[in-house]
């Protein structure tokens, strides 16, 4: 019987659900309830945007500040540099734009796509990068910035 035929009956449908769930890592259920609150603090100075608590944001995400800076530069098309604890972005970036960029970063490089957990790390293997989840153990490829 094909999956299409199987899914039409209640029994078959339940069997498929069973198979899907047993394929998930056991600890994935109910994991990932930690929340990270990101409150960027920004200043606009002449034609630059300065994120004054950039190091703190990176620490909260447990990521290298230069990785996040690279992402912001690439996605916004604006060059930036790290100076001490601050990120200096060329051009004006609104708080809303910055928040959106950080959200995108979290979605792609921090949040586990399987369990939604935020306790993850990026590991390099040969030329590839993977997001490894410390909660459910999932390992998913991520792009190299
Ligand atoms: Zn996970």
Overview of this structure, please?
- α4 crosses α5.
- The protein has a domain of 101 residues: Defensin A-like (2-Layer Sandwich).
- The protein is an alpha+beta fold and 145 residues long.
- Strands 1-2-4-3 form a 4-stranded antiparallel β-sheet, with helices on one face. Strands 5-6-7 form a 3-stranded antiparallel β-sheet, with no helix packed on it.
- It is elongated.
- The site of zinc ion has 8 residues, from loops.
Looking at this protein, list some descriptive labels.
single chain; 145 residues; alpha+beta; Defensin A-like; 5 helices; 23% strand
Give the name of the CATH architecture of the domain at 42-142. Answer: 2-Layer Sandwich
- What is the makeup of the main sheet? 4 strands, antiparallel
Tell me, what is the CATH class of the domain at 42-142?
A: Alpha Beta
**Residues in helix, %:** 25-40%
> DSSP strand (E) fraction?
15-25%
Order of helices and strands: HHEEHHEEHEEE
Based on CA atoms alone, the radius of gyration comes out at 20 Å
| Distinct ligands, ions and cofactors found in the model | zinc ion
Low-confidence runs: 26-30
| CATH fold-level name of the domain at 42-142 | Defensin A-like
Query: Distance between the terminal alpha carbons, to the nearest Å?
Result: 45 Å
Number of discrete helical segments: 5
- Average pLDDT, rounded to a whole number, is 87
Give the overall shape, derived from the CA principal axes: elongated
Adjacency order of strands in the biggest sheet = 1-2-4-3
How many β-strand runs?
A: 7
* Secondary structural class: alpha+beta
């Amino acid at each position: 019987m094909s999956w299409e035929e199987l899914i039409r009956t209640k029994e078959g449908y339940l069997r498929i659900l069973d198979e899907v769930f047993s394929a998930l890592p056991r600890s994935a259920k109910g994991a990932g309830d930690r929340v990270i609150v990101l409150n960027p603090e920004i200043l606009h100075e002449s034609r630059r945007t300065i994120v004054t608590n950039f190091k703190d944001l990176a620490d909260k995400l447990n990521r290298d500040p230069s990785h996040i800076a690279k992402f912001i530069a690439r996605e916004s098309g604006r060059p930036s540099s790290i100076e001490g604890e601050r990120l200096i972005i060329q051009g004006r970036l609104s708080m809303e734009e910055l928040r959106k960029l950080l959200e995108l970063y979290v979605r792609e490089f921090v949040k586990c796509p399987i369990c939604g957990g935020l306790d993850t790390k990026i590991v390099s293997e040969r030329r590839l990068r993977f997001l490894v989840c410390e909660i459910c153990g999932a390992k998913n490829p991520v792009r190299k910035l």
